[in-house]
Fold each of these.
Amino acid sequence: MNSSICIVKMEKEHIPGLVEIENACFSHPWTYDGFAAELESTTANFFVALSDGAPVGYIGFHAVLDEGYVDNIAVLPGYRRQGIAKLLMDSAFERCAVLGLSFLSLEVRKSNAAAIALYESYQFKTEGERKNFYSAPREDALIMTVRFKKV
């Protein structure tokens, strides 16, 4: 685990770094304006992993009523396999508990074994598929969901 990583709520000054992460990780990256709009959204919950003050990963999800939907989780390629995605997931799960969510759901490429293993370690289960959900390259998505027990 990388001890020099800190997780913070997304702020405007993080957006240029998040755009760099998007460009490095996704074939259809989010734009500056897309992230900026999330800062105005009352349903958005975005957390950023910082290394020496620079964004190296992030997770974003929306909470509507008691339902959570992950938009993206990404870590720069040079920072992967250091536990950063776990730190981001932990932050998201803590926020889900504060919000009293019933579940958190996401889509993942069927071929993304590393991400699927991460999600399964958090008790996500495959609950469906979306045919041709991704493009560049075209691929189906698994719909994975973790259900939270109400206390």
Note: The mean pLDDT is 94.
Amino acid sequence: MEKSLIDYQTSSYMGNKPHKVLVVDDEPDILDLLDYNLSKEGYKVKTATNGRKAVEIAAKFLPDLILLDIMMPHQDGVETCRQLRENPDLFNTFIVFLTARSEEYSEIAAFDTGADDYITKPIKPRALMSRISAMFRREEKKKQKSSKITIGDLSIDRTSYMVTVDGQQISLPKKEFELLYYLAQNPDKVHSRDDLLQNIWGSDVYVLARTVDVHIRKVREKIGSQYIMTVKGVGYKFGIEE
């Protein structure tokens, strides 16, 4: 497989430290290709050839991004993603599936376990590097706008990613937190699924509309159903039901 040269700069640094990327795939050619292109852009890279090893490495390496295949020996990518999301030290880590599996059920399973993006092979290195760079830029912008929202008994702290309901701390995965925070920023404003997909997952990430519904359901289960209302035929809005 030919290695593509990347002839532009990307945002590979967080402050003075390079972003760390863990690449997980059982194909040596894929690992070599991604290691080469990511390293060339200034990322600090480690690799793993199966899911079990990835979980071990991630716990010590604490990557900012994990590129994860689905079909691997010993443990598939979906189960690996689930285990990674159980580690609180990896809460802010982006997990991007990079796989040959294009079935809808595989994509839904990936997002349900906490994936931030789902990209199908074959790999286009230049496009992938651009996508990764855009992901980190969006994250930096979100951090700059960090603030705390308190409505009724619900408190949402964007700086610490902490949610409390009536004084009790609630644990939300990253995408569920961002969805709740976005809705709470504009109480009583109705957001369509397309709007939520655009602002939470980004325009360069293809996500099924059903993914929004799944995340809304999970947020409601954890904080209570009274905070997010369904506007039939339109979308969702944040507000306290009387």
Note: DSSP finds eight helices and 14 strands in the chain.
Amino acid sequence: MASAYKVLGVDTSLRSSGVGVVQAQGNVLRAIEYSCIRNPASRPHSGCLRTLHAELNALIERTQPDAVAIEGVFYCKNVRTAVTLGQARGAVIAACALAGLPIFEYSPRKVKQALSGSGAGSKQQVSRMVQQILSLNETPQEDAGDALAIAICHLHHRTSVAALAPTPL
């Protein structure tokens, strides 16, 4: 039997980061754990980053993933939003790097393409494919579903020709 390989997918934001761990064993993919790391609007910015880092540390300790896949940076019209997202990504990347995990980055378009066959696929198509691929009884919450999609994308690319696979951060 093929050995299991686990990927932690992260859809980063300051207030509601989706996280999901997907295990591949042979051609079978299954969700190990998925949820959202939430920060209330009343929590100070620094507290949000601390919570994000601490929750990721706990998830990594619990699930012991082999790699991490995160959504790449995309265009933001608002500079403040871009900076805040960058800081949240930094907390995520730091937690994963400190755990010694290789980190891979995928554009939203690449994730959609891996799951729906089209880089312009709708969120609903991607969500349905996550549910189908992982044999889930219900559709995961949107941010958690996006994190699972990112993990699945990495698993699809991991089995591709090595020269085409993205390089770790």
Note: The chain has one domain: 5-159.
